[in-house]
Specification:
The protein has 900 residues and is α/β, with parallel strands linked by helices. The chain is built from 31 helices and 38 strands.
């Protein structure tokens, strides 16, 4: 499948309607009418045997009779006929197909799945893209395309909307029509047999007609593809999503109980909190309602730099200002404290006729000049991050004059300012002034404040997406083979859980400290083990039927001396026989007591979600964990910044920062432990779950007291389970070049400082050749993030790193290649530090990239260079690239065939 054929869905030059009909209520008739009335400029070719013409257009008896191969075909016939029609369209050369056929209510699930599988196989074999089956179709207003079952037309605009819900497609279209909101396109995905959310995001992320993307999403069928596409799109434009949470899962549970479950949705079922975290990691903004979806989209379309959440409010109505301030503070925002200079300036400009504080209350009849003066002063105040300008309608007071004055100020200032001209009808003309100038405007203060919080969430999400993480400690070298051996042994023995000693070994292999542990079969052995460990010790019963010994009371703590251990072991056996007579007793677990007075009790767990793969949870631990319910979750891989962000979303994070009489816990060590567990689940796919509780944390670091680890069944498959591809450590290699020991490896986000230093040491000539004539000496954080924070599924950058001084690596060369979603051709760029050219470094980097591109299945590797860059052309020719001059672009094109 190729991304190219998606063009035929959104930008076809010809359309065929298979199953066109004369009945006005038939889908084939509705689609024909919509295509004609939508103003589609290309040929529309109805396929039908029931009439000579439909909607005024001559028909064709079958697909073979079509005068030309359609770019897009819309199938409106019965679903049982859809596979046959798809075959015919494939033979005729169609490149895009929308299947609007629906499954009748009485059709059995097995038959539905059989038809879907046949359709999927045909689309794969024939090489066309298919939207559906089911669904409402597609509308692209700017292109005059309405290949849908919509009941109304759509205005042209810059917002794209994609949904898996038929009802939301029509609801949003109706809402947008009544609110004069336009679209670049609307897509109803239907059953997503071929085209899924990831494909749509890949297309819309690069579509110049689309400024922001809105999704209604319940499930995803391929988490890795979705996350990769979403992260790429979110870097280019705002990506907003609405998803029903608890209600959706309750409905799915009810359907399962009744035996009416939807297999597609159940197989993709994941808890709402996991979807929420996935959206966060992808840089998406999640909203709660359709109104919020469009309010936030229009606000983000005109987003100016937002530095923080300190807001100043201007209003001519005291109560309205109080409501806005209350909404701001309730949501976690902050009322900006005005500087003495700003207060003095407001006194002078307003003649003392204002409230004297924030919210800045003007007189009810304040004119445009007063609004403009107040706004200018507030925007100059360094303690103000953003402003909300409000106007309450009063008799005899012009709301348009104030709106024009505010708009005039904002034309000269690049700051984030929101407006709320209250009153649905009274202030409509004033709000139209703001809309025309691209200034966010709302009808109520609550609406404006809610939009502000969405902006702030979006800002934080983008910062998280673009942050440069701290470097990991240089001594983190996990023993992956040891951990996998332990897990493999348990699977071979068909055990679900590791024993305490095995769990300790796995954690030790990844550097997570745990109290010393011994396993014994009898009370006598328990005494011997306690003597070896040293007192005091804890004794716990081992039984497959008692996974949580604390709950049954078969645990004894702080035992001093062999007599106490002997007595405790005997008492535990008596209690186990009384409470759980069915339990098989394997023996005892003996642990040295972890003495950490004043340490915080945390928990750290991981499990494998059926959709998103490994999920890491962190929070307040101990026996009261389930009652406290203080936890947050995330997806691996993690770095120091992501680990800190995870911790910050828990209530206990404030205690970890320290309190009177209690020093702060070692946050870096907690972060490192989170990263170690994340890496463990990346490296060891045999693991199914892990639970460390409690995990002691104080100023000395962390210590695990108890850990339970389960493994996957022996025959379970665990490939491709990670939603976000981790750093591909297996691609690292060390090579020798002229007595220099050079590491060739994929680039990491942590490389930003050394990469910036590398670029600074390139000559002006090399910068000009690398960036095609543009010589830049200043690269900002966004530029560096684009170079170093890559999606390894879509891009690869290999750096050559030289470490002449211990702990001070230098980047001396880089080759970067981007691969489109179809992975057919990669486009490369290469540059070597100016003072090291001519030593064979470029050859090493090119060899590595060619090997990588070939192994991943790319068909070609291509690049461009300037005509004068003879060195690059010689290197390409040496590796067998075809090199030719592009007269139109005035560049040299280089192409190497890798896989036929």
């Amino acid at each position: 499948m190729t991304k190219t054929n998606l063009d035929c869905l959104f930008e076809p030059k010809s359309v065929a309607v298979v199953g066109a009909a004369t009945n006005p209520a038939h889908p084939g008739n509705i689609v024909m009418r919509n295509l004609i009335s939508g103003g589609f400029s290309g040929p529309v070719m109805p396929v039908s045997s029931e009439a000579e013409a439909i909607a005024g257009v001559l028909t064709y008896p079958d697909v073979k009779a079509l005068p030309k191969a359609p770019d897009l075909a819309v199938i409106c016939s019965e679903v049982e006929q859809a596979p046959e029609e798809l075959e015919k369209l494939g033979e005729r050369g169609a490149r895009g197909v929308i299947v609007l056929s629906s499954f009748p209510p009485g059709m059995e699930m097995e038959r539905r799945q059989e038809l879907e599988q046949r359709m999927r196989q045909i689309s794969l074999r024939r090489g066309f893209r298919m939207l559906g089956p089911k669904g409402m179709g597609l509308i692209a207003p700017s292109r005059g395309l309405n290949a849908s079952l919509a009941h109304t037309t759509a205005l042209s605009g810059k917002i794209a909307f994609a949904t898996e819900s038929d009802s939301l497609f029509t609801t949003v279209l109706d809402w947008a029509s009544s609110n004069a909101v336009g679209f670049s396109c609307l897509v109803s995905l239907g059953r997503r047999v071929d085209v899924a959310f990831s494909d749509i995001l890949d297309y819309l992320g690069c579509d110049p007609q689309t400024r922001s993307i809105l999704l209604y999403m319940e499930t995803t069928t391929n988490a890795r593809k979705f996350m990769s596409a979403a992260r790429a799109a979110a870097r280019n434009k705002p990506l907003l999503v609405i998803r029903p949470g608890r209600a959706l899962e309750r409905i799915q549970e009810d359907l399962r109980r009744l035996g009416l479950e939807d297999e597609q949705k159940l197989s993709c079922k994941g808890r709402d909190v996991i979807y929420d975290m996935a959206f966060r990691r992808a840089g998406m903004l999640r909203v709660d309602s359709i109104d919020d979806l469009f309010d936030a989209a229009q606000t983000l379309n005109h987003l100016q730099p937002l530095r923080g959440n300190r807001m100043a409010i201007i209003t001519n109505g005291a109560s309205a200002g109080t409501l806005a301030a209350d909404a701001l503070l309730s949501g976690g925002g902050e009322l900006a404290s005005l500087s003495p200079e700003t207060i003095e300036g407001l006194d002078t400009a307003l003649g003392g006729r204002w409230t004297g504080a924030n919210p800045v209350g003007l007189r009810f009849d304040a004119d445009g000049e007063q609004y403009a003066a107040a706004l200018k002063l507030l925007l100059k105040d360094k303690g103000v991050d953003t402003a909300l300008v409000m106007h309450v309608p009063f008799a005899g007071v012009s709301d348009t004059e104030a709106a024009e004055a505010v708009a005039a100020v904002l034309k000269r200032v690049k700051r984030m300012v929101l407006t709320a001209w209250l009153g649905s009808n009274a202030s409509r003309k004033a709000r139209q002034i703001f809309v025309a100038d691209g200034i966010p405007t709302y009808e109520t203060p609550e609406q404006a404040i809610r939009a502000f919080f969405y902006m702030d969430d979006y800002r934080r999400g983008q910062e998280l997406l673009m942050q440069t993480p701290d470097s990991l400690p240089g001594d983190f070298f996990p023993d992956t083979s040891k951990a996998r051996q332990v897990a493999a042994k348990a699977r071979e023995e068909e055990r679900t859980y590791l024993d305490a000693l095995e769990a300790e070994a796995v954690l030790a292999a990844y550097g997570v400290p745990m109290v010393e542990t011994r396993i014994t079969k009898s009370a006598r052995e328990a005494v011997i083990a306690a003597d070896e460990l040293g007192y005091p010790v804890a004794v716990k019963l081992r039984s497959p039927q008692i996974p949580h010994p604390f709950e049954v009371g078969v645990v004894a703590l702080d035992l001093e001396g062999p007599e106490k251990v002997w007595e405790a072991a005997a008492g535990i056996l008596v209690r186990a026989a009384r409470e759980r007579p069915d339990a098989y007793i394997e023996g005892f677990t003996i642990q040295r007591m972890g003495r950490r007075p004043g340490a915080h009790e945390l928990f750290l767990s991981a499990n494998v979600d059926p959709v998103f793969g490994p999920v890491i949870r962190f929070g307040h631990g101990g026996l009261a964990r389930d009652m406290i319910q203080d936890k947050a979750l995330t997806l691996p891989p993690l770095n120091m910044n992501l680990a800190r962000e995870l911790i910050s979303r828990t209530r206990i994070s404030k205690l970890l920062s320290g309190a009177p009489g209690q020093p702060a816990a070692d946050i870096d060590d907690i972060c490192l432990t989170l990263i170690q567990i994340s890496q463990l689940f990346i490296d060891v796919p045999e693991l199914d779950s892990l639970d460390i509780n409690p995990l002691f944390a104080d100023h000395e670091g962390v210590l695990a007291l108890n850990a339970k680890i389960s493994v996957r069944a022996k025959d379970a498959v665990a490939t491709g389970r990670l939603a976000i591809r981790p750093y591909p450590k297996e691609l690292e290699e060390v090579v020798m070049l002229n007595d220099l020991r050079i590491t060739l490896r994929p680039i990491r986000p942590e490389d930003e400082p050394t990469h910036a230093e590398f670029l600074s040491r390139l000559s002006d000539d090399d910068l000009r050749l690398r960036f095609f004539g543009v010589v830049r000496r200043e690269f900002g954080h966004k530029d560096m993030a684009r170079f170093t924070q890559i999606d390894y599924d879509r891009e690869m950058a290999f750096i050559a790193s030289l470490e002449e001084k211990p702990g001070q690596p230098e980047t001396i060369g880089v080759i970067q290649t981007s691969f489109p979603p179809d992975k057919e051709e990669g486009e490369f760029a290469i540059v070597v530090r100016s003072d090291l050219k001519g030593q064979g470094l470029g050859k090493l980097l090119m060899e590595k990239m060619i090997r990588y591109a070939k192994d991943r299945g790319a068909k070609r590797l291509a690049g461009q260079t300037m005509l004068e860059n003879r060195t690059m052309q010689d290197l390409a020719e040496r590796f067998g690239f075809s090199v030719h001059f592009d007269q139109e672009e005035e560049t040299i094109n280089m192409v190497l065939t890798l896989n036929e």
